[in-house]
Amino acid sequence: MSTKLSIIKPLTAALVAVVALGAVTTGAQAKTLFKDTSLTALYGTNFKMVPTDQTADLSTVTFEHASTHDWGGIFMFIDRHNGDKYDLKNSDGEVTGSKRYKETFGKISPKFKVATFNDSLIKQVNLAGVYEFSSNSTGFGQDNYWAGVGVDLDLPVPGIKYASATLYHAFNENKPDDQKITLTSAWERDNFLIDGYVDFSFNNDDIENNIHFNPQVKYNIQPMLGIDNRLEVGVEYDYWKNKFGIDGVNQNAFAALVKYHF
């Protein structure tokens, strides 16, 4: 590991931990403007590289938290994936058994407000960071750290709940560093909600540029059921061109979902 990464990674991890703790234990000097915690169950098909190049079914349970504060905000999620069985092979390529694919993947993403604007397309400028982690049943694991700058947008579209654009530099553990552009947005009207993100990763000489488009289309059935908490049903679409930077591995997957907000 280079000296640069050996210094940056512990500092970034410490910064993320401090912000996450501050968001959970908001004190008198930090005002909470919005808070949401949810649990989602998904089941879909046609996923690739989980872990083979063949398409596979995948079930996922996602814990998610988002909150905004007068200092900025934090978003985090943890996915637990369970996939199909895959062949285990020895050094000669002979099949020696099978194993079910499992993976834990998550991100912690704080942002810090730098400036705000009134009556402008850009309503807030942020410093942003991401701690990305994962491990799976093949023995692969990673801890990546992103740092960047972004903006919250005030789009003149009825129903828009939020929109943002962020440029990151990613300090990657198992591949050279690269840059990422992340776009997020959400729109809601009459209990219909469409939200999601686009990640574009580029400027890595060892792998292909790749784009990951991951929206969800949901309907809130809370009023229909007369319950206290929001409950959504819908579908998630997952398009990933050159998945993991592998040339020609393009994923088109759909998953049914149920999402419960606490």
Automatic annotation (TrEMBL):
GO cellular component terms, A-Z: cell outer membrane
Signal listed as a keyword: yes
Signal peptide region: 1-30
Keyword annotations: Signal
Name listed for the protein in its UniProt record: DUF5020 domain-containing protein
